[in-house]
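Input chain follows. Return structure tokens only.
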Amino acid sequence: MSKKKKETHEIDETGILVSKGKKSDKVVPVKLTKDSRFKFRCHPKVRCFTACCSNVNIALPPYDLLRLRKRLGLAAHEFISKYGDIQILDKTLFPVVTLKMRDDEKKSCPFVTPQGCTVYEDRPNICRYYPVGMATLRKVDAEGGKDEFYFMTKEDHCKGFEEDKQWTIGEWRADQGADLYDEMNRGWMEILIKKKSHGQGKPFPDIKNEMFFKMSFDTDYFRAFVFNSTFLELYEIPAERIEKVRTDDTELLKLSYEWLRQAIFAEETLPFKEGALEKRKERADATMRKVYGNKEKGQIGDSN
């Protein structure tokens, strides 16, 4: 008898960022597309209103966190300290932010009330997708090949499926404003997937993890890095884009994703200015000479 062929696909770990992950969820084992239809509606008169807003794992990609903290008038570090938990994402080993639930019996969302969500216009993308989830099925040890699809999550208490309103998944995403969130977080998600493909379970040095975290989630920190360092001397950034980055946090996020890919994976996402690398090397050599005197490079670190 021949052996059963080994499974050659896996669900991408980053799928947790678009499904709420409650243990009691029942994932319907059907792959859906943007044209798949379903019935669902959530409103205050539904008997289960806000019941899904407790005991959930809600990851906050950079744009989600940006929207929430701007609404609340908080700096990134203030928001994370008050409302966030830092967790290490399985298989990528990168630090990410999740929403801290209240310390009550239900472990309820800090922004939910009996009347509904107090940050509804700026709610996380996971909440916008619900009850739809999204995942990527990719071939193991294969370049490229991936199959992005949707699935339906049904909880026993949810009565939204008894409503008559019918949607396609594409219509649902557009109605909930999920498309913008997907677009704004796509570059960040690609970094997570890239890290996973570089070696599952192999951690980066702490300095790289800290760099990934600060440059992803703290736009004020990254903006200071862009304008108060040699960043603009090093990279060829169009003047129009520089002005956008100066005041527009969404443009700043996009730039941070490009820079992180270059800094972490050595991808050529941002072009260098002509001669910039040589000038940086000269400055580094001058610094080394100040520290070590006129020793040859091979002597640096040798005792006198």
